[in-house]
Amino acid sequence: MKRLISQSPNAAAPLAVWDQSAWLLIAVNLVPLLGVLFLGWGAGVVLGLYWAENVVVGMVTLLKMLTCTGDAGPWWKRLGHAAFFAVHYGAFAVGHGLALLFLIGLTRDSADPVESGVRAVESAPVNPWWLGLTLAGMAVSQLYDYFDQFLVRGIGRDKDAASIMFQPYPRLVVLHVSIVLGAFLCLRAGSPTPAVALLVLLKTGLDLTLHYGRRAWGRAAAPMQAE
Fold this sequence. Notes:
With 227 residues, the chain is mainly α.
């Protein structure tokens, strides 16, 4: 494990365009599509899964901050950055979750959209085992990316904790502004299957774009690291 956390000799090694992380990302994103097509999942269920995935992304980012090699200062400085990120990102996730509940409830006739959104989520005819398996798959995808890309290949591990701390926010903004706008249209239309399926495909495409962007960001300092 100590060898993994130290500098990786593979940091400057060339990467395939379609790496295993990308294939796993596609496979995990196809699970909600199957849920939409065959299990009757609506936009609200899909949005809830994407929100939970963001929580997983935040946890993996914490792991990256604690195992990166770019911090030359004392260990407590890195720990301080991690604590700040946990509080800030956690508050952001709570606010985002409330916004999603408001969005879901806004499409129903209710004086309190958030309460209506909660009732809609609770009453959704969805098997919790399928939701649990889907979320577990999302977690496996993120953790595999952490071990394979970050620890083993060393992509982005030469950054400091302060730089890594801001990494998940562009994903939140770019991905979920697009998804929430699309989901609102789906919810207003009664969550028709073709529209929700298109929403899932849109999210998959954006996820892949951000995956390769993150990989390019992480590789930026790799040639210097190999000298």
